[in-house]
Design a protein that fits this description.
- This protein is mostly beta strands.
- It has a domain at about 400-449.
- The protein has 1 helix and 31 strands.
- It has one helix at about 400-405; strands spanning about 50, 55-60, 65-75, 80-90, 90-100, 105-115, 120-130, 135-145, 150, 155-165, 170-180, 180-190, 200-205, 215, 220-230, 240-245, 245-255, 260-270, 270-280, 285-295, 300-305, 320-330, 335-345, 350-360, 365-375, 380-390, 390-395, 415, 420-425, 435-440, 440-449.
- The chain has a 25-stranded antiparallel sheet that branches. Strands 29-28-30-31 form a 4-stranded antiparallel sheet, with helices on one face.
- The radius of gyration is 26 Å and the shape is globular.
- The termini are far apart.
Length: about 450
């Protein structure tokens, strides 16, 4: 039995450099869409989009919450944060974001400086997206500010897509920085069946020469591909095509041109599936991935079982496993991301993070505490806390404190400096800086620019 090798497929969709080829029986973790701490504000009224004016971030240390910084936000009417200002002891770090009509970021500008002073450029990123796959970035450029000008950095990359006359993707070439230039680094090719019009073969190449492009084919390729569904717009890793508009049903894996194994996938509903990665014998499973929805909130579990031991022999019972359980509350926020793994006869390993939310009467988060599981103590230890300020409806066309004052126009407004001294009855004409604004019973911290 051959050793099972897979391509460094992640190079097609990320900026990683070439890596040593892992065991073919390694279904990619990226396919699982691991949990992120994404805040979801309430949308109880479909005509409104609620967003927090500011947040305060704390770190837990020796039984106390230590304030690490405060961030104020500005938004567009679609709910996108267009400006984020972090105040770290009087030093400001500002991120300004620009979006296209599809709500994708087209520019991210970082500036910084002392509170009340001028902000200077620090870094910038720009993004261009495919006209068909709206969220796939075909050009990403990164710059650092140096010597009064923008200098390209390692964050740059391009993904050149070629399509056939039917509009289906036939080739993607990723170029990465080499010196001052972007040089072709990776390429994937899709071949289409003339009768069905669907992709039936996949090949992957690496450029082994810097100055002159010299494509070296991967040892692994995939043929006789069968789809559960496809739209011909495959921009993900081949081994991630189990969700969305392109879902694999089966494929043959070839090693150096010879049949080496099979991939089989079955689906249950929109989100759940089982994937089996086998040897030449379709009944001999090397690895199995199972995704299953576990409650009505959309919580899910993804399990990966490997049937390959340390000597690359196929065994009947799983030799190792990884089980990730993501728990989501009724508001749509992740409240726990738990990973449990086993390997051979070694003791099992558990890692977990919990996110404890407090909500206001409208279902908007007012506080989130992050705790990390301590395996020795067998308990969760507080790590960080975020406190969210007043929420505003950004669809009103205003952002920040302006919206709050408008909502409380019939109440008196008082403006104080950070030392607690009253300085005005409105924000008009104030110098740049941070102020405390009281209107009625509501108190907020705002930035004037």
């Amino acid at each position: 039995m051959k050793k099972f090798y897979a391509m460094a497929l992640c190079a097609i969709v990320c900026a990683s450099s070439a890596e040593a080829a892992p065991n073919r029986f390694t279904i990619k973790r990226d396919a699982k869409k691991s949990a992120t701490k994404t805040l979801i504000a309430s949308r109880s009224d479909a005509a409104k989009i609620w967003r927090p004016v500011s947040t305060a971030d704390y770190m837990y240390e020796e039984g106390e919450w230590i304030l690490m910084g405060e961030t104020t936000f500005e938004y567009d009417a679609r709910g996108n944060a267009t400006r984020q200002t972090v105040n770290d002891g009087g030093y400001l770090s500002v991120v300004t974001l620009t979006y296209n009509d599809d709500n994708m970021v087209t520019e991210r500008l970082e500036t910084e400086g002392e509170e009340g002073g001028d902000l200077v450029n620090s870094a910038k990123r720009t993004y261009v997206y495919d006209s068909v796959v709206k969220d796939f970035c075909i050009e990403r450029m990164g710059y650092n500010w140096a010597d009064d000008g923008w200098v390209k950095n390692f964050y740059c990359e391009t993904n050149k897509i070629t399509r056939n006359t039917d509009g289906n993707i036939t080739e993607i070439i990723k170029s990465l920085p080499l010196g001052e230039d972007l040089t072709p680094a990776y390429k994937c090719i899709w071949h289409y069946d003339a009768t069905t019009g669907k992709a039936d073969e996949y090949y992957y190449y690496t450029n082994t020469n810097g100055a002159v492009t010299l494509w070296e084919p991967s040892e692994v390729s995939y043929k006789n591909i069968v789809w559960q569904n496809t739209d011909g717009q495959m921009t993900k890793d081949f081994l991630e095509l189990f969700e969305g508009a392109n879902r694999l049903s089966s494929a043959e894996a070839y090693y150096e041109g010879e049949l080496d194994g099979h991939i089989f996938a079955t689906y249950s509903g929109e989100n759940d599936y089982t994937v089996k990665n086998t040897t030449i014998d379709p009944s001999e499973v090397g690895e199995m991935l199972v995704r299953e929805t576990i409650d009505d909130n959309g919580s899910y579990r993804i399990s990966i079982f490997s049937y390959v031991d340390e000597d690359d022999n196929i065994v009947e019972e799983p030799f190792s496993s990884e089980v990730e359980t993501v728990t989501i509350d009724e508001h749509g926020n992740i409240i726990e991301d738990r990973l449990e793994s086993t390997y051979g006869d070694e003791p099992p390993f558990t890692a977990s993070e919990k996110y404890e939310y407090t909500y206001d009467d409208n279902g908007n988060p007012t506080e989130m505490i992050t705790s990390v599981y301590d395996e020795e103590a067998e308990d969760f230890v507080p790590q960080s806390k975020t406190v969210y300020s007043d929420y505003i409806d950004v669809t009103s066309g205003t952002s920040g404190i302006e919206n709050i004052i408008a909502d409380g126009a019939d109440q008196s407004v008082e403006v104080y400096n950070l030392n607690g001294v009253k300085v005005a009855d409105s924000l008009n004409g104030l110098d740049n800086g941070f102020y405390i604004v009281r209107h009625g019973s509501s108190v907020s911290k705002v930035a004037v620019k």
